[in-house]
């Protein structure tokens, strides 16, 4: 795997199944009464989680089957509005584990 620090994208270079779990801490949203984040695989959001509030911790999991090399995975804001992150570290966590 390779991580691009500028885009937040992770490239996977081996076919297989990968468990992706993540969490993010949100301090607010500009317009929506909810927050939604998800896992984007090769430019398409494959799974997302919604927090029916605009403040709090949001988490999720996704099982990603990689058959196209390379495959790009990103944690993305799927709310379609600006969200404000916590000022306390860590803001977000992402873990990818190969599943045999």
Describe the structure.
The protein has one domain (2-99): Jelly Rolls (Sandwich), CATH 2.60.120.40. It is mostly beta strands and 100 residues long. The model has no long low-confidence stretch (mean pLDDT 91). Helix content is 0%, strand content 63%.
User: Helical proportion?
Assistant: under 10%
- Low-pLDDT regions: none
User: What's the mean pLDDT score?
Assistant: 91
> Which CATH class applies here?
Mainly Beta
**What is the fold named in CATH at topology level?**
Jelly Rolls
Sheet-strand content, in percent, reads over 45%
Distance between the termini: 16 Å
Total beta-strand segments: 9
Query: Which strand order spans the largest sheet, edge to edge or round the barrel?
Result: 1-2-7-4-5
Q: Give the helices and strands as they follow along the chain.
A: EEEEEEEEE
Class from secondary-structure proportions = mainly beta
Number of domains: 1
| Radius of gyration, taken over Cα atoms and rounded to an integer in Å | 14 Å
Output the number of helix runs.
0
The main sheet comes to:
5 strands, antiparallel
CATH architectural arrangement? Sandwich
Identify the notable features of this structure and list them briefly.
elongated; 9 strands; Jelly Rolls; four-stranded antiparallel β-sheet; five-stranded antiparallel β-sheet; 63% strand; 100 residues; mainly beta
């Amino acid at each position: 795997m390779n991580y691009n620090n500028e885009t937040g994208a992770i490239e996977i270079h081996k076919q297989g199944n990968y468990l992706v779990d993540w969490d993010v801490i949100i301090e607010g949203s500009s317009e929506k009464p909810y927050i939604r984040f998800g896992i984007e695989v090769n430019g398409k959001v494959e799974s997302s989680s919604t927090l029916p509030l605009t403040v709090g911790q949001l988490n999720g999991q996704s099982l990603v089957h990689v058959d196209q090399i390379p495959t790009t995975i990103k944690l993305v804001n799927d709310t379609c509005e600006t969200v404000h992150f916590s000022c306390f570290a860590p803001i977000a966590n992402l873990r990818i584990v190969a599943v045999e």
